Amino acid sequence: MKFKILITGSTGMVGKAVLLECLDNDAIEKILVLNRNPIGLVHKKLTEIILKDFSTINTIKDKIFVPDACFHCMGVSVVGLSETEYLHSTFEISKSIADLCYTLNPDMTFIYVSGKGTDSSEKSSQMWARIKGKTENYIIHKGFKKSLMFRAGLILPERGIRSKTFIYNLVYLLIRPLFPVLRKSSNITTTSKMGKAMINSLMIKTIGNYFENK
Length: 214
What we know:
By secondary structure, the chain is α/β, with parallel strands linked by helices. The chain has one domain (3-212): 3-Layer(aba) Sandwich (Rossmann fold). 35% of the residues lie in helices and 19% in strands. The strands form two sheets. It has a seven-stranded parallel β-sheet with strand order 3-2-1-4-5-6-9, sandwiched between helices. It is globular and about 45 Å long. The chain starts with a strand and ends with a strand.
């Protein structure tokens, strides 16, 4: 079976990794990336739509093919953001994307790149954990055929990929000599493994909604 994939956030570290794995995988027939800024890649499988404001995503509905899956990798760092700003960037934008995807194909697989420590009860003292929990809950209860929450912890970048967050890049630079050792830990994953896992989830039966690094 061949799959048509919609990817958000492909200019970010995880999103770009997922895109590269999709480009390399013969099971992926067609890819549409929705970005705020151009990714600068050209490939026969790939189409890109630039959308500066994702709250207006319904305006491009007619330009989107019927996807078999959405890999929603778009996200922002909570650093420096108020709760209102983070709620908009995380929950409200994700809600708009999920709502559109559901109208396009409720039988699709929707994967959301969340974070380790996300709080499903939405009661955490940590603002980001509550809002990511709210986002996860909305997607899970939307009614997709399959909803998977990838609660990423430490992810090691591969294939020349860099984070868009300066502090993360600094941390990666400092710990890079330890990458060979860190890769052996079952609790640490890589950008390539994240991409492959998302693709594999389309082909095999999965149990539950939540997946962490291990």
